[in-house]
Task: structure prediction
Amino acid sequence: MASTLKVNTIQHTGGTTGMTIDSAGRILTPTRPAFKASINTTTGRDTHTSVQTTPYDTVQVNIGNHYNNSTYTFTAPITGTYYFSTSQNKYGKLILYLYKNGGVYHAGEFLQDSGAAWEHCTIATIIDLNANDTIQPKHKLVNNSSTQYAWNGGSTTWDSFSGFLIG
Result:
């Protein structure tokens, strides 16, 4: 005998679904803020050794439209705990940063330089944000007097910046 799942839906005042819970305990929150962006450009990836904003210009996911791919900034729509990750292919020595409201919150150094080879690096963290707080990915090439690139670019595969509201 097949069992039937019961579904309960909680709607926003405007009528859109805010949450669905089925009798198996699965929860769907289709309007929970989340985004994922990648770098399409290759311009500027090798021209600096100071801290620069990383140009995650191509959006694959942007639930709620809280990520701006012109300023490369996520703005928290509500107070809560969020998860963020930035991941880049690099050639040379690189430091990755996540800035909260204009100041460094989290960073990772990737100072191994294997010579003529691309390497991948990732940083991730959990951050408590208030509504309207901002998160922005940044990077710094560490001058090693040889060819270096802060990101690969040119596709949605190699470099990504993503985040979502945990709760």
